[in-house]
Amino acid sequence: MTSTSAKTAQANPARAVRQHALTSRFLGVDFVPIFPEKVPITKQDSGASASNARGGGGGGAGTGSTSGGEVELIPPPRTDWHTVDEKRAAAQKQLDAIRARYEKDQPHAKFVTAHTNIVFGEGDPCARLMFIGEAPGLDEDRTGRPFVGRAGQLLARMIYAMGLSRHEVYIANVLKTRPPNNATPTSEEAAACAPYLYDQIAAVRPEVIVTLGLPASRIILQTEEAMSRMRGTWASWSHPDTKKHPGLTIPVMPTFHPAFLLRQYTQENRNKVWSDLKQVMTKLGLQGRKKG
């Protein structure tokens, strides 16, 4: 900042903010998050992590906490699920086998893809809550991790507001590879990848699924309903292989995709998504975190 700009900012901070906003808009920046990149760590975070999810085993290395008393919204993925406890070790072993089968079958080879990495999914293999999106984007393809771009940052804030962290949920997509130009998955692409997603769900066995956006909601609920009619209303998912997974039925809450919120960041849409998530919190007995 030049000395003239600094004096202007000191003399008229409101004008300086407007000038900065206009300059950012001109440069193509059309969204500024209302939450900080890092949020204060709570007493529950410091020792809980996955232990709150289902029967202990969290905490320790890989919780994403920092020495400065803060917790990263998108911490590095945990790699110790195999050794946390017997239940998580068994579930992670199933997930690894599903990924190996996917990599061998390569269903994405049947359609056009622009991927660098397979984005299989990550999180607690025994999570009570599972989020499902439609497909990886550029940042996800680069890192091999789901929901790490701008939409992922917003999802992380939603998870945090619910009283959880990324280590306490499981996050996946219908497609495991990035479509060209982040295109919406076709019905053929979704059908080719769905069996692996279904088996992921069966391995994790969450108590609740939140589907993010229209493609994910439609493939999970097997419907052609509009998003406006689905969101906010409980539905259910059952594994189509009833012989292998008898009686596996999980409540599903469809809601808007975080990327949609970034495009339509209105108070009305934010209230709708928060209303959907509060229903999930009630079902799981979560208290959420108070603002401030």
User: Poorly predicted ranges (pLDDT <50, ≥5 residues)?
Assistant: 1-10, 16-70
Integer tally of domains: 1
Mean pLDDT: 81
Figure out the total of helices. Answer: 12
Beta fraction: 5-15%
Oligomeric assembly: single chain
Query: Overall 3D geometry?
Result: globular
How far apart are the termini? 31 Å
Question: Biggest sheet, strands in spatial order?
Answer: 3-5-4-6-8-7
| Corresponding CATH superfamily | Uracil-DNA glycosylase-like domain
Total beta-strand segments:
8
CATH topology label: Uracil-DNA Glycosylase, subunit E
Alpha-beta classification: alpha/beta
Quick rundown:
The protein is of the alpha/beta class and 292 residues long. The protein has helices at 3-11, 13-26, 43-47, 81-84, 86-105, 138-143, 150-161, 187-204, 214-221, 227-230, 258-263, 267-284, and strands at 38-40, 70-72, 122-123, 129-133, 170-173, 208-212, 235-238, 249-255. The chain has a single domain, classed as Uracil-DNA Glycosylase, subunit E, CATH 3.40.470.
Describe this protein's structure.
It is a single chain. The protein is α/β, with parallel strands linked by helices. The chain has a single domain, classed as 3-Layer(aba) Sandwich (Uracil-DNA Glycosylase, subunit E), CATH 3.40.470.10. The strands form two sheets. Strands 3-5-4-6-8-7 form a six-stranded mixed beta sheet, sandwiched between helices. The longest helix is centred in the N-terminal third of the chain and has 20 residues. The protein is globular and about 45 Å long. The N terminus is likely disordered.
